[in-house]
């Protein structure tokens, strides 16, 4: 791969060549289609930065690239684990590093594309390598959650680590569980652990951020996107996944927007109209969180996906970097 220009990992004054290009943005901002077009033009391969696309079978709800699109441009970190298996930001960082190294070794350009902001931040700004809990400890905490309820476990977290309890919602089973695991393993609050186990950025990248300026138009695109997923068979896809894998509602894969609401529908908790309403509302809430993250993440160029000449501007950006 030809050297890619200045990276964001060290800030604006960092003139070291970057390891990759990146296109990041919220849901329904058009980043996937834009990246596909750019990749074809500059000889890039796409590394997915999407926490749902890593799972096999989660195709419709993750808006996963089609087989035809993957035939046009090689994609990495898609369909790498089954939906009942664990997958973390730390594992993503390791997998992304390996994918980028492989692409570069073949003289191609790695193009990171996605909207899972925790993954992006972990990759470009560093992540704390925290200890893994034993299966016995995890099983014990899960049993206590089932016996005592999430509210009681959140109260326990607040007693042991008030700062973390303020950040973690009382209904967030996965994060409460992980926080209690780490405290049991180390006897330390999470903020201390993050500082002690911090690691430098895994990659340097030149980042294009898609930042929608017209909120009304973007919300309309979000709503249309989720309605199209339902029309494409999201519920049937989940029904099939539940028959093939040992799934339950608290798995990270099943907590993804769209699948969480489809699960409630299949359980008879909501009707079809409510499925549409809740899915669209959850998608808009996700975008709000993504935009909060995006404003804090470093990027070298920001473009409005609705602005005229977007593809030309983005392609000029990519070409200028690919040729340096």
What does this structure look like?
There is one protein chain. This protein folds into two domains: 4-127 and 199-322, P-loop containing nucleotide triphosphate hydrolases (Rossmann fold, 3-Layer(aba) Sandwich), CATH 3.40.50.300; 135-196, Histone, subunit A (Orthogonal Bundle). Helix content is 53%, strand content 10%. It is built from 14 helices and eight strands. It has helices at residues 31-42, 67-72, 89-105, 117-125, 135-148, 150-160, 162-167, 173-186, 190-196, 215-232, 234-244, 259-266, 272-296, 310-322; strands at residues 4-6, 17-18, 20-24, 44-49, 75-76, 109-114, 205-210, 301-303. Helix 3 (89-105) crosses helix 4 and helix 6 crosses helix 8 (173-186). The longest helix is centred in the last third of the chain and has 25 residues, at 272-296. The radius of gyration is 20 Å and the shape is globular.
